[in-house]
Specification:
Helices cover 44% and strands 9% of the residues. The protein is elongated, with a radius of gyration of 29 Å. It has 2 domains: 10-103, Glutaredoxin, CATH 3.40.30; 117-180, no CATH class. It is an alpha+beta fold. It has a 4-stranded mixed sheet.
Length: 211
């Protein structure tokens, strides 16, 4: 990040809120916590920020001629207002972090992409585990090894996929057991033998037709 923050004070005039983050109201606007975090980031960069809430600080609105005029002409629809040196630079919406940085004379460095070919193969391996696709696993395992991915990293991807895959399966079985007061043993239910395909009937059909 480069650039020098503005010396002027940045002022935000909010619509009526229970608090600056809005999290204690009946319905939370996801833009509010994010905007609060962005303002905190601005202050960490040395920008002076003041924020006023119409519900709690109406005097700040009445005593600012620019804000007072905007409210008289447009009503609360003009809020939130963002002012720099007494001039409105944003109205009716909360600026993004990049927009705030531009207003404050800062530059935000673009995030570094972490999605490398190796990461892509680990994602594919996880998807193969989740979808029970043996050919997919074999292929992407081989591709990952060609890219120099450590076997431990592959094992971690498999373990993560296994955990994500099994969690909802266990939850629904637990739910069924609670409703039914327990389940019969697999052999009592006519479950296929270990190693056979899930879609084959026990003792019947050809394994060549299995998934």
């Amino acid at each position: 990040m480069s650039g020098e923050p503005i010396n002027a004070k940045l002022e935000i005039f909010d619509p009526p809120l229970c608090c600056s983050t809005g999290v204690c109201g009946p319905s939370v606007d996801p833009a509010l916590p994010k905007f609060a975090a962005d303002l905190e980031w601005l202050q960490q960069q040395g920008v002076k920020v003041e924020r006023f809430n119409l519900a709690q600080q109406p005097g700040a609105f009445a005593n600012n001629p620019v804000v007072k005029t905007a409210l008289q002409q447009e009503g609360n629809d003009c809020l939130p207002l963002v002012l720099v040196d007494g001039a409105i630079v944003s109205r009716a919406a909360y600026p993004t972090r990049n927009e705030l940085a531009s207003i404050a004379g800062l530059e935000v460095a673009e995030p570094i992409s972490r999605f490398t070919p190796a990461v892509a193969e680990l994602v594919a391996i996880g998807a193969a585990i989740a979808s029970n696709c043996e050919p997919c696993f074999r292929y992407h395992y081989a591709q990952a090894k060609k890219l120099g991915v450590a076997k431990r990293d592959i094992a971690l991807a498999v373990a993560m996929a296994k955990t994500v895959k099994e969690a909802p399966a266990k939850a629904v079985i637990d739910l069924a057991e609670r409703y039914l007061g327990g389940l019969p043993k697999p052999e009592e239910a006519g479950a296929p033998e270990e190693g056979s395909c899930c879609s084959c009937s026990p003792g019947g059909g050809s394994q060549d037709k299995c998934c």
